[in-house]
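FYI - complex with manganese (II) ion, inputs then prediction.
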Amino acid sequence: MPYETPPLPYAYDALEPHLDARTVEIHHDKHHVAYTTNCNKALEQHPQIAAQPIEQVLRTLDKVPAEIRPAVINHGGGHYHHAFFWNIMGPGKGGVPKGPLADDIKKTFGSFDAFKDQFSKCALGRFASGWAWLCRGPDGQLHICDTPNQDSPLSKAHTPLLTIDVWEHAYYLKYQNRRADWIAAWWNLVNWDAVADLYAAARR
Ligand code: MN
């Protein structure tokens, strides 16, 4: 199997009380695993593509045969985005970023609070299923955007730094229709050290 679902980097209940153990377990062991499995299935006859890191595949979708491209966008995107999502959260996190990331957030959005507000509104405003992102664009600037379904910012030459999953499966057991409450709670889980590492790598 070319791609594997990375193990959850913490226990199912590690994100309590902001995110419940049952949601994390189903989200990782069922949803995430299904994306990885279906990505592998889509690429069964295309080992030369599956040999590449998934980031590279999503960055160069024009090299993916048209007949499997929608499956790669959906399942390859889902495989990659969820691994990314687990990695930028952690128990006892939250707070504020430090270093160059903090400086550039302030420079770009005015203040950390203004950034937080704009990002939260973006996540809340994503109609139906998708993600909100902080990315470094090809222009070297920070950008907030949202993407539908499993469409990836990588496919638009953006480098993801931070993301929140706003598919209902990410929050419905605990928050039901209250997406705004999920977003507000999620800030307490953001692992800013992990985000700073991604930013440093993106700027290299
Ligand atoms: Mn999800």
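Residues 99-203 form a domain with the minor pseudopilin epsh fold fold (CATH 3.55.40.20). The radius of gyration is 17 Å.
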